[in-house]
């Protein structure tokens, strides 16, 4: 099974995870259509 | 991005190792306005406080994406004054496939990080020489032009 990006869907969750992991956030604004 | 770049395993591995990834739809107008985003794809590098350190607009191939966001992570480290980590990220760009403009950006900011760490301006002069020789048609070669006045 291939590795896939596990996107979060809320910025506050990403900020909390970034603080814990001491990593930057990659924020992708996208149009699903 | 979702059809070509993100499904690539090397991209997924790179993102997983280096970032906390979050996707926000354009229907989230509050965040679109907060970050002044008017076109997609727009991809930002933020710190844990939500402060922006880097952005790209438009499609990137898998190779371009990895190179660009190595620069993005380097810029994040640079802004956080983690200079050795910044230099290491810019070195990764320079040791891997990258377009001339992305490699030139990495060279430019590598010199900035070295200068800010050491307060020795020689890396800036060296970057100017390298940019002029290897990437003369990039905007980064032009931005480094003043560094030719620094004694070698």
From TrEMBL, chain B:
Record domain Thioredoxin-like fold: where: 14-68
Cross-referenced InterPro entries: Thioredoxin-like_fold, Thioredoxin-like_sf, TPR-like_helical_dom_sf
Gene3D superfamilies according to UniProt: Glutaredoxin
Protein name: Thioredoxin-like fold domain-containing protein
Organism (species): Desulfobacca acetoxidans
């Amino acid at each position: 099974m291939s590795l896939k990006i596990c996107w979060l869907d809320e910025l506050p969750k990403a900020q909390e995870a970034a603080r814990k992991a001491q990593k930057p956030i990659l924020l992708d604004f996208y149009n699903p259509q | 991005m979702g059809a070509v770049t993100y499904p690539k395993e090397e991209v997924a591995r790179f993102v997983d190792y280096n970032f906390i990834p979050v996707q926000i739809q354009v229907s989230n107008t509050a965040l679109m306005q907060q970050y002044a985003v008017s076109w997609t794809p727009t991809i930002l590098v933020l710190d844990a406080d939500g402060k922006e350190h880097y952005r790209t607009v438009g499609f990137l191939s898998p190779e371009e994406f990895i190179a660009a966001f190595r620069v993005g992570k380097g810029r994040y480290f640079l802004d956080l004054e983690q200079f050795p980590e910044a230099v290491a990220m810019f070195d990764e760009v320079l040791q891997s496939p990258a377009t001339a403009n992305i490699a030139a950006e990495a060279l430019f900011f590598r010199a900035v990080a070295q200068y800010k760490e050491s307060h020795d301006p020689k890396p800036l002069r060296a970057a100017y020489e390298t940019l002029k020789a290897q990437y003369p048609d990039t905007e980064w070669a032009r931005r480094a032009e003043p560094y030719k006045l620094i004694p070698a």
